[in-house]
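Predict the holo structure. Ligand: copper (II) ion.
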Amino acid sequence: MDDQRERFPNVTIHELPVGQPRIIEVRNLSPSEHPFHTHGMSFEVLSINGQAPAARRVEDTLNLGIRDAVRLLVRPEVPGDWMTHCHILPHAEDGMMTVLRVTP
Ligand SMILES: [Cu+2]
């Protein structure tokens, strides 16, 4: 598992081959909440702080409370570079943003 503390545009671009589901973990290490948002693919919420959701949840935005850690299942289906960012736009503009590259 990578421990990434990077700010856009100086980020590691992660490649996701199309058609290959991938589990990603997102951790909020900061003292405020952040709604994690993906473009180009939705995700299934597998767990929030180790607890599976009561019902199946497929989302494109998930609010992470302070110190929350979530495990998400993404199913990349459309090739391209997809922005993934905090949906509080001043946070995104401050660098809380990255790219998931779905490769053919
Ligand atoms: Cu944020």
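The chain has one domain: 21-103. The pocket of copper (II) ion is lined by residues 34, 86, 88, 91, 96 (CB under 6 Å).
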